[in-house]
Structure formats: structure tokens, C-alpha cells
Amino acid sequence: PLRWLADLRDAAEIPVEEYVEAGHLVVRAEVPGVDPDTDVTLELDGDHLRIRVDRRPPDTADDRHVYRSEIRYGTFRRTLSLPVDVKPDEVQASYADGTLTIRWPVADEQADSTRIRVHRG
Predict the structure, then answer these.
(1) Are 84 and 16 in contact (CB under 8 A)?
(2) Residue 55 phi, psi dihedral angles, 5° rounding
(3) CA dihedral over 79, 81, 82, 87, signed as positive or negative
(4) What is the pTM of this model?
(5) What distance in Å separates the CA atoms of residue 86 and residue 55, rounded to the nearest whole number?
(6) R_g of the chain, CA atoms, integer Å
(7) pLDDT single digits (tens) 87-104
(8) Beta-strand (E) ranges in the chain?
(9) Which residue in 42, 11, 21 sits closest to 104, CA to CA?
(10) Among 9-13, 15-19, 20-24, 111-115, whose mean pLDDT is lowest?
């Protein structure tokens, strides 16, 4: 019943935007300060995209005295229901300037509206 609270927390931890552009579904996620080769895991399960990011604190000397630390470290997860069908075998993912971008061709474009004829019984 309180799942919406977890959704709000997840959205705050990994903010995303989704849109369709030139026949591709694009998901962009803000994940600064990570190494995409070792810290990012992406999984597509049906129409759900799972993003997992591990952000580790930098290696520092033991004599460091921290006055303030507002950067969150740890494991962050986000699961998104994709709004359109995609071709999973044609996915492309890239990481630049703290933004993870995932692109898939849309499986088949649907018409904006379809008129349905009603038959008399």
C-alpha cells in the first residue's frame, strides 16, 4: 500500500526522463560520479528496465576530516515500465558527463487513434 513512497525515493535517487525520438525510445538517467564499466548494471525484463548503480566514495587517506558530505554513496536502483514496445536486441547504451543514455528502436509504431465501428446487435 505504501509502494508510492518507495517510487518517490527511487525517483529522487536516479532521476530519469523518457521520450520517443526518431523512432527510438530514449531513457536518460542522471548518475554522476560512476564508472559505467563497473558501477552500472542494466537489465531488460519484458517491458521493465532495471537500472542499478553503485556509487563508491573516493579512496582517501585515513587522516581526512570531513566537515560536510552531502553526496550519497551506495547502491541505487530504479525500475521503469517502458511505455512502448522496443526491440531489445538492438539496444544501445552510452555514458557521458554523468548521464546514462539508453536507446532502442520502437518495435512497431502505433497509430495515434483508431476508429472502431460499432455494429447494431
Answers:
(1) no
(2) -110, 120
(3) positive
(4) 0.75
(5) 29
(6) 19
(7) 888 999 999 999 999 999
(8) 16-21, 24-30, 40-45, 48-55, 74-81, 92-96, 99-105
(9) 21
(10) 111-115
